[in-house]
Amino acid sequence: MPLPGGRSLTLGERTLVMGVINVTPDSFSDGGVLFDASKAIEAGIRMAGQGADMIDVGGESTRPGAQTLPESEEQRRVLPVIEALASRVTIPISIDTYKAKTADAACAAGAAIVNDVSGLRHEPDLGGVVAARRAAIILMHTRGRSQNMYGQASYHDVVGEVLDELRESIAFATGAGIAQDRVMVDPGLGFAKEAVHSYEALARLEEFAELGRPIVVGPSRKSFLSRPLGGSVPAGGREWATAAAVSAAVLAGAHIVRVHAVPEMLQVVRVADEIRKYHRED
After folding, report:
1. How many C-beta atoms surround the C-beta of residue 115 within 10 A?
2. 203 contact partners, CB below 8 Å, separation of at least 6
3. For residue range 176-207, what is the model confidence (pLDDT) as tens digits?
């Protein structure tokens, strides 16, 4: 997959690992440890050294109930981190945003991928920005905003409906001028989905191959992982559960997994990739 700045992603030979950096004071995964820009930059450099294939930087929390952040504050948080990382690591940087102006500024600072949790539904102008910057885009599935997304978690066939809505997002992207070979899709585990919906989407991940686009999966530390564990495990205690979900995603055909604990999940991915080599179709 071609990226700006002469970089590229090789998708399909092995599963790629995307390290997550949340530059937010209320991150569900770490409680705001990386809200300090210098710590976020150090974490990104460390992830690159640990073997991450790309780094995803976000400045607005998208956890359930989170409030919308003004784009000026979002940019204040993420741009120094992206600019520093783009000059100090060789792997691609992704900006986790649905805002067109933030994406444009982030790409100017060195981001090569835009990770849009809304699938181009919150700000349609984002598509034109991505096209003009010749960036890649990840189109994630969700419904509604963080404050009300669980109110829209009603499905007759979760996979069928998510596929239909991702097809619409792909059409939005190509209609805005984004080349199809720069488009990736994400089923959006935990977004506008009850735990049962996320588990079904993960169990049926192979069906997303019919979209013909690389699949990104982000189960890391999410609350749906607590369901079979009794429902009271804090985010920091869900790493073993994350490992199980990451393994399932790799074995089902994920091209990229989005994780917080890079060295641990890199081991999981490498072993799952090795197992997958010996899979035989019936």
Report:
1. 27
2. 248, 252
3. 999 999 999 999 999 999 999 999 999 999 99
> Hey, which residues are catalytic here?
222, 258
Q: Measuring CA to CA, which residue among 74, 83, 75, 174 is closest to residue 130?
A: 174
**Structural contact between residues 11 and 92, judged by C-beta atoms closer than 8 angstroms:** no
For 116-135, what is each residue's pLDDT tens digit? Answer: 999 999 999 999 999 999 99
pLDDT one-digit tens code per residue, 8-58: 899 999 999 999 999 988 655 554 566 689 999 999 999 999 999 999 999
Provide the whole-model pTM. 0.94
Can you tell me the distance from the alpha carbon of 136 to that of 113, in angstroms, rounded to the nearest whole number?
5
DSSP string for 216-242: EE--TT-GGGGGGGTS---GGG-HHHH
The architecture in CATH of the region 15-276 reads: Alpha-Beta Barrel (3.20)
Number of Cβ within a 10 Å radius of residue 156: 6
| Cα 253 from Cα 139, distance rounded (Å) | 17
Residue 228 is encoded by which pair of tokens?
Answer: 């079979």
